Amino acid sequence: VGRVLLALVVAPLLLTQPGTYDLTRLGAGRGPHDAPFTVRYRLPDGTRFGKPFYVGVRLHGEVPLDPTEPLANVTTTNNAFICASIRVNAHRYGANTVFDWDGGPPAVTATGTARRPVLALRFTSVCIIPSVRGGTSAVRFDGPGLRVFADSAVVIARRLRDLSYPPGTQGGPSAAFAGVYPPEHVRAGTSFALDVRLRAFRPRVVVNLRARAPRGPVEVVDGTTRVVVRGGPIRTRASIRLRALRPGRSWVAVSTGASEVVVVLEVDRAA
Amino acid sequence: VRRSALLVAVAIAAAGCGSTRSGHAAGCGSSPLHPGEPTVGAPAAGPLLQRALEGAQARGSAHVRLVIDLAASVAVGQMPQGIPPARVRALARNPFCVELEGDVSGDEFDLAGTLTAAGETHDVGLRAANGEVYFRDGDDWHDLAPKRGFFASETLGGLIPITACVRKDSEGCDAVDFGPAIRRGILARLVRGHVGEGPGDTWLVTGRPDPDRIALLTDGDPESYDDVERNGRVLVSVSKDDHLLRAVDVRYRREGTRVHVAVELSDWGGDVHVEPPHSAPLGRDAYRRLFVDFYAVLILYY
Q: Of A129-138, B25-34, B123-132, where does mean pLDDT reach its minimum?
C-alpha cells in the first residue's frame, strides 16, 4: 500500500484534457529553474501526434547575453525530440559585441539592466511528430545560463492550429538586418553611431527602425528612424545616433519590428 | 584568402586595364598615394572612375609598377600541406613582398623585379608571350604553362572574380576579362569615397571598398565583405587632362595583418611587343617558388 501511495504521489501528472499545464501544476515548484531543467508528465496510453492530442512547450525564460560566448543555443525538447531552438550569435567588434538570434519581438526580445542584458523568451512551439507518445514524457529546457520561469508549460491541444511554430521558422520578414556595426571603441562624453545595413525582400519596404537603451551609460539620440529599403543586391544603409554619457557597460536594442539585434557596448573613460 | 585575394585581384585588374607615373614610387611597406580631403567642385567618384576605366580599356596597354606586400604578426596555426614547417614559420615571421615593373597589354606582359619571402629576396621576372607564361628566377627562365591554363582553378582560378572569369572548356577560368564588369559600372563603384586634389595634376579618390559592389563582382554575400570595408582603404589617382588612371593603392589592416597592393600606371597606349625567352624549360621548381610560397602566405594571413 505504501509503495502504491508513493507511486501516486511522485507519478508525473496525467494530462487527459487540452490545456496549459505550467511547471507549478506539473509539480516542479514555483521556480525559477536553472537550465538544464526537465519536467515530466504523462499522456494516456496510445496517444500519438494528433491522436487525440498535439503537444507544445511554452517557454518563458531569459538567457544572459554574454559577450564572451560567441554562440548560444536555447532549446526546448519533448522526449529528446526538438520543439524549438533559438540560436543566439555574438559578433565582436573591438570592445563591443553585436548579438542576433532566430525570431524577433515579442517572442524573443532584449531586456535587463545596462550591466546585465538578457534575452527574454516567451513563446509556445509545437513538438515534432515522433516526440508525442503515451505514457511518461519528459520536457527539457536547455541553454547556457537559461532561467526558466514557473509559467513555462506543457501545452496540450486537440487542433494543430492552437499551437504555434518556433520563432523565426514561419514566413519571412519583408526587410531584415544585413549587418549592424558599432565603433570598435567608445569613449565617455562622445556621440557615435551604429552603422546599420538592411535588405528588403520586396521592391520597396518602409522600415521604422527603433532603438532603445536601458538607463545607464548610453542614451539613444534618435529613437525612431524611417528608412526606405530597396530590394535588389545593394543593401540600404542607415545609422542610429547614440551618446556615451559615462564609462561602463550598456546595451542598445535595434528593431525593425520583425527582428531585433542587441549591441553591448563597453564605454571607456573620456580621453 | 578570398578577401585578401580579392584586393589583389582588383588592383591587378586596374593594372591590366589602365595608366601614368605618380610623384613617388611605391615599394614594400610604402604607398605612392596618401589620403586626401574632399575638394569643392571635384567630380563624383563613380563617374570619374568609370571614365578612367573605360579610357584604360580603350588604350589597352600601359607601363605598370606593381607592389604586393603582406605582413602579419600571426601564430602559425594552420600548416599548409606540402611545405616544410620551417619554411612556413619563416614565411610567417617575415613580410612577403612582390615588386614588379614593366609593360602590360591585353595579351602580353613583361615584368621584372624582386620577390621577397621568408627573409630572402630573389631577382624575378614574369613574361607572357605567344600564349605562354614564363617565370625568371635569377638568370634562368622557366616555362610555367600556356596562358590559357594559367587561370584555371588549380592555379589562379580562386583569385579571379566570377564576373571576370571567362569559361569555355575548363572548370576554372579559361581567360580573364574585366570588360563586362567595367561596362556594367561594377568596377568603378567598388570604391565609396570622396574626391579631392591629388599629387601632380590629378584627382584623388579617397575611400573604402564597397562590400555590396564587391559582392556583385564576385557573386558573393555582401556581409562577408563588410570587414573589408571596415578595415580597408582605397586611394585612386586619375589624371585631370587625359582622365586615365595613374595609381591605385589598396590597403587592408586588421589585428596586425596588413595587405597592401599598389599599382602605378604610365605610358598608356604604347606598343607592347614581348618576345618569349630564348630558352625556357618547363619549370616545376620555379612554379613552386612562385606559387607555393604565395599560397602558403595567403593561407597564413587569412
A: B25-34
Q: Give CA–CA dist A217/A200, Å, rounded.
A: 33
Shortest Cα–Cα distance, A108 to chain B (Å)? 23
Contact call for residues A98 and A182 (beta carbons, < 8 A): yes
Tell me what ipTM this predicted complex has.
0.79
* Cβ atoms of A84 and A126 closer than 8 Å: no
Locate B148 and state its grid cell: 590559357
Closest CA to A135 of A18, A40, A22: A40
Cα of B69 to nearest chain A Cα, Å: 25
How far is CA B211 from its chain centroid? 18
| Rounded-to-integer distance, Cα B227 and Cα A115, Å | 28
Tell me the β-bridge partners of A82: A77
Q: Would an 8 Å CB–CB cutoff place B90 in contact with chain A?
A: no
Q: Nearest to residue A238, comparing CAs of A191, A177, A187, A184?
A: A177
Question: Is the pTM of the predicted complex or chain greater than 0.90?
Answer: no
> pLDDT of B183-212, one tens digit each?
889 999 999 999 999 999 999 999 999 999
- Residues B69 and B98: their CA atoms lie apart, in Å, by 6
A183, A185, A184, A187: which is closest to A247 by C-alpha? A187
DSSP B163: G
User: What Å distances lie between residue B286 and A142, B109, B114, B144, CA to CA?
Assistant: 57, 18, 14, 8
Contact at CB, A235 and B212, closer than 8 angstroms: yes
Torsion of CA A117, A123, A128, A130, to 10 degrees: 90
Provide the residue count of chain A. Answer: 271
Residues 6+ apart with CB under 8 A from B83: B292, B296
The residue assigned the cell 615599394 is B27
Q: State how far residue B217 is from chain A, nearest Cα, in angstroms.
A: 11
Cis bond before residue B222 (omega within 30° of 0): no
C-alpha cell at B17: 586595364
* DSSP element (H, E) containing B148: helix B147-150
For chain B, the first-to-last Cα distance in angstroms comes to: 5
**Closest to B185 (Cα-Cα) out of B153, B216, B208:** B216
Percent of residues in chain B assigned helix, strand, coil, to nearest 5: 30, 35, 35
Answer yes or no: are the C-beta atoms of B270 and B108 closer than 8 Å: no
The answer to whether residue B192 neighbours chain A at the CB level (below 8 Å) is no
- What angle, rounded to 10 degrees, do the helices at B211-218 and B2-17 form? 80
